[in-house]
């Protein structure tokens, strides 16, 4: 059965400027992301991992190249169109959780639901990540793993086609990381496409494909024929 391409990335270039200093980060990146797969983008610090993620998500503009999302070009969209793209299609999960400290877990989800056309139920989303007893808790009352699960639920409440996760377990210990990755397993099982940026090669064992970056280009793509489950991972 032929795979359906969700995102096609062609000849992507990005250079950052600080004063008179120019730093090329992406130097012609090419790869596809298929619908319903779990991809890991792996590379050393400075290899361009997060930049690719942010360009796909419409948070950063590329200098040149093409990104087609469901066959629609998103490079050079207006800010209004990018906002619509992010709102309707993408859920974000970050290393530092980005929860609003003055809101409860449920309220952190509700504020996103209010901006969404057909959101899921916030309490059901928290239940799906094992936090049904933390609905009224504030971020300061939650562990790091629990806060990350709230951020996953927040990403899922929009019913996104694609979830982008930037180093989602970097601040967590091994066992807590496994708990978060088990939630990711269910996300993919339910048909959502997941792209995870990481420097942790253990996580790549769960992925369908691994995209390896070096010096701003894709130097290797690995097909993982037998992804393992989160509980089988060893740090």
Q: What does this protein look like?
A:
The chain has 235 residues and is an alpha/beta fold. The chain is 27% helix and 29% strand. It is built from 6 helices and 10 strands. The strands form 2 sheets. The chain has a 6-stranded mixed beta sheet, sandwiched between helices. The protein has a 4-stranded antiparallel beta sheet with strand order 2-1-4-5, with helices on one face. Helix 3 (105-113) packs parallel to helix 5, helix 4 packs across helix 5 and helix 5 runs parallel beside helix 6. It starts with a strand and ends in a 12-residue tail after the last strand.
Radius of gyration computed on alpha carbons? 17 Å
Helical fraction: 25-40%
Shape: globular
Order of helices and strands: EEEHEEHEHHHEHEEE
Number of DSSP E strands = 10
Judged by helices, strands and strand pairing, the structural class is alpha/beta
Distance between the termini: 35 Å
The number of helical runs is 6
* Strand residues, percent: 25-35%
Summarize the structure.
The protein has helices at residues 49-56, 79-89, 105-113, 122-128, 144-156, 174-189; strands spanning 5-18, 21-34, 38-42, 64-69, 72-73, 90-93, 162-166, 193-198, 209-214, 217-223.
Write the layout of secondary structure elements.
Layout (H helix, E strand, L loop, with lengths): L4 E14 L2 E14 L3 E5 L6 H8 L7 E6 L2 E2 L5 H11 E4 L11 H9 L8 H7 L15 H13 L5 E5 L7 H16 L3 E6 L10 E6 L2 E7 L12
Parallel strand pairs: 3-8, 3-9, 6-7, 7-8
Antiparallel strand pairs: 1-2, 1-4, 4-5, 9-10
């Amino acid at each position: 059965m032929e795979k359906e391409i969700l995102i096609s990335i062609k000849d992507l270039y990005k250079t950052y400027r600080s004063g008179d200093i120019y730093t090329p980060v992406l130097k012609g990146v090419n790869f596809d992301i298929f619908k319903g797969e779990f991809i890991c983008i792996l590379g050393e610090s400075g290899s361009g991992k997060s930049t690719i993620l942010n360009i796909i998500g419409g948070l950063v503009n590329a200098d040149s190249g093409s990104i087609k999302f469901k066959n629609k070009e998103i490079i050079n969209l207006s800010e209004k169109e990018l906002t619509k793209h992010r709102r309707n299609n993408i859920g974000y999960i970050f290393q530092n959780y980005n929860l609003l400290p003055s809101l409860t877990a449920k309220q952190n989800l509700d504020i996103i639901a209010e901006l969404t056309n057909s959101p899921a139920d916030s309490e059901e989303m928290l239940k799906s990540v094992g936090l049904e007893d933390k609905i009224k808790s504030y971020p300061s009352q939650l562990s790091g793993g629990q806060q990350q699960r709230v951020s996953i639920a927040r990403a899922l409440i929009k019913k996104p086609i694609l979830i982008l996760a930037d180093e989602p377990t970097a601040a967590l210990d091994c066992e807590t990381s496994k708990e978060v990755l088990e939630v990711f397993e269910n996300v993919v099982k339910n048909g959502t496409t997941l792209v995870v940026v990481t420097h942790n090669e253990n996580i790549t064992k769960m992925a369908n494909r691994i995209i390896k970056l070096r010096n701003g280009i894709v130097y290797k793509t690995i097909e993982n024929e037998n992804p393992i489950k989160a509980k089988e991972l060893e740090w």
